[in-house]
Amino acid sequence: MSEPLEDEFGREVTEVRISLTDRCNFDCIYCHNEGLGDTRGPMEPSDDELTADEVIRFLEVVEEFGIEKVKFTGGEPMLRADLEDIIRRTPESMEVSLTTNGSFLRGRAEDLKAAGLARVNVSQDALNPEQFAAVTKSGAYETVLDGVEAALEAGLAPVKLNMVVFEQTAGYVEGMVEHVANREGLQLQLIEYMPELAGRPEWNIDIGRVHDWLADIADRVERREMHNRKRYWVSSTDPDAVGDGDPGMVEIVDPVENPTFCANCHRVRVTHNGYLKGCLNRNDDLQSMGEMSRTEIRETFEDVVANRIPYYGEYLAENDDSEWVRNVT
Prior knowledge:
By secondary structure, this protein is an alpha/beta fold. The protein has ten helices and 14 strands.
């Protein structure tokens, strides 16, 4: 195994994020489909969807370059009937995680764990069926909650709940924080809304207000080296809390206009149809891996890593009016 590849900004690439499908059984109003925009097609798999053999071939090639972690995403990756097989065949040197809406976890969580899944993130934006339906356009609220329980029972703890924070969900943050503080085995990841990907800039809120509120109520605050993220450890205020009494962990992912975040990115993404992209926020850097031969995979991966540019601070730069504009120098 070689050392990880570096781009010209000194950023090692140690992780890959693979979209296994652009299909999804939800229709979340903030979805940006891994930065590609709302391109989801019909529920039947398309001919250009990466096969399990192609996914594994890619992972075996990039293992040569020191890739340590792989996260499978979508669309909804659990629409792939071969997901367990893909995880089982993933190189043992890689930690495997999954981002899912959770609606299929009951009945499959144990098999996913047995196949080698280490961690799972479940998208959950509200703790009320009506509020959940308004955001996801789905009536699967109880199914998702049951799926989270199934993941915990299968030994996938801690289960990290992903919540996108924007105008429609900001009022639910306090309840979600209390939920993870009150429930052993859960963590919460509050994700800043990205209007440049999802559109609707009027839905944006100031994520700094959420930081300030959490700092006021947290037992302690930690700063992660990766992306300079902050973690807040919050105790439950419920006298009937069912947890073990330990504080719950809440982490904020705030990439928007954040040069530090981009300067510490160690990830390359793979689209469901076999393109590599070096940055979530860009689609002008997409490169096809062609027929997915090992040579094509290797050459494309090396080229994508070599041409990665931090989105904020380099690809975009602040002008004299403190606006982020395309850096053309």
